[in-house]
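The records we work with from here on pair a chain with its fold. Taken together, the tokens spell out the fold as the letters spell out the chain. To see the layout at work, look at the sequence and tokens printed below.
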Amino acid sequence: MTSYEADTRSHVRLASCLNLLTGLGLAASAFIFLAEPEPMLLNNLIVGVVVAVLAADQLYHLSGQAWPSWLAVLAGCWVMMSPWVTMATLGREPSQVMMVTNCIAGVMIATFGCWAGLAENTSPDERYYHADLFGGTEGR
């Protein structure tokens, strides 16, 4: 493994580890906020477990591809929107605690997923191209 590949894997591992923790935290929020309506709790439990599984795939390099990271980005976007969508089906407004929790978790999941996906998709050739494009000397 080249030093570039090792550096890329370390970025993917770090972002995936942070996403794994965020997904587990989101799943745990279903048990912390028991006063919330059941559909919202079930949503956070399911999406949190899915994000944790996707992050574990990237952490242990099971699929060897970037698609789990990009699915995590979509899951993060859903987590941000879910309080309003889920509660709208019940005809109620989401609580402020649930809105803040889901928005923070969603931004974190999407950010870490993007980080891992971009690190996984960046090849040395792209790195040289970007360095030349922006006048840098990276890779020389």
Notes: The radius of gyration is 18 Å.
